[in-house]
Amino acid sequence: MDKIVKKNVEEIVTNIMGKLPNEWKTEIKKEILEEVNKERVKMNEGYYKKFEMFGRKMDSIDFDNAHLLEKNAAMHKELREMTEEIKQIEIGSTEGIRMANWNEQYSRKKNIKIHNLEERRGEQLIPELITTLKHVKDKVGINLNKTDIVAMHRIPGKHGYPRPVIVKFLRMENKIAILKKRKDLQKIIEIKIGDDITQKNQGLINRMHLHENITSA
User: Fold this and answer.
1) CA–CA distance, 7 with 10 (Å, rounded to integer)
2) CATH number of the 110-196 domain
3) Coiled coil where (predicted)?
4) Which residues does 53 contact at the CB level (< 8 Å), separation at least 6?
5) Distance of alpha carbon 149 from alpha carbon 114, whole angstroms
6) 200 with 101: CB under 8 angstroms?
7) Which of 42, 52, 61, 167 falls 20 to 30 Å from 13 in CA-CA distance?
8) What predicted TM-score, i.e. pTM, was given to this entire model?
């Protein structure tokens, strides 16, 4: 049906055009061409605007991508710098802790620690230690005077046990003399004598004892 209508319309138009004067035909063709050109120009302008907008969007996307890449590179650089800074802080902190521990241990180099020494109210530790050593002088051969001890005091310990005692000697020889005879002293007085070790070093020694190949530390 559509084909028949189209054919009829074409025939009618052809008949009409055939009856029109030539100058009219020329004028009509001219007007048609002008309208076609106008539409073509509009279409071209429309496509041009669309392509222009698309190009701007692509430029904007490229700019955004470049900005993101630049920002990402800056963030990675900042992260690397922060990581390096943290690393240096950790190194400095570790070195600071090591030096502090060394200094603390050095300050204790003339100290000994006594465990299981009976604790009494109102005790006078230095005179009592000197008296005890004099009583066992013949057995252990240690001659110690009050002036050889700089300080002697108890420190916190385990609940239910006598608090440990720290003894600071005037000279290193006094400490060495005690440590050389500590096995005899420990048997006679029933105490335990050792070096005054920092908490950090004591933890290291305790971990070393966990290894089966290490028998003493």
Assistant:
1) 5
2) 3.30.70.1820
3) 65-92
4) none
5) 14
6) yes
7) 42
8) 0.57
Rounded distance, CA 127 to CA 146, Å?
Answer: 7
154 by DSSP, 3-state: which? strand
CB neighbourhood size of 133 (10 A): 18
Burial class (CB in 10 A: 0-12, 13-18, 19+), 97: exposed
Residue 156 carries which DSSP code? -
Tens-digit pLDDT profile for residues 20-30: 566 655 666 67
User: Cα angle vertex 182, ends 179, 185, to 5°?
Assistant: 145
Kindly list the distances between the CA atom of residue 209 and the CA atoms of 60, 176, 213, 215, in Å, as whole numbers in the listed order. 67, 24, 9, 7
pLDDT tens per residue across span 115-128? 999 999 999 999 99
Q: At CA 146, angle to CA 141 and CA 149, rounded to 5?
A: 90
Q: Which two tokens stand for residue 181?
A: 């005879």
Q: How far apart are CA 106 and CA 22, in angstroms?
A: 123
With H, G, I as helix, E, B as strand and everything else as coil, classify residue 151.
Answer: strand
What's the per-residue H, E or C state across 77-128?
HHHHHHHHHHHHHHHHHHHHHHHHHHHHHHHCCCEEEEECCCCCCCCCHHHH
- Tell me which amino acid residue 214 is: I
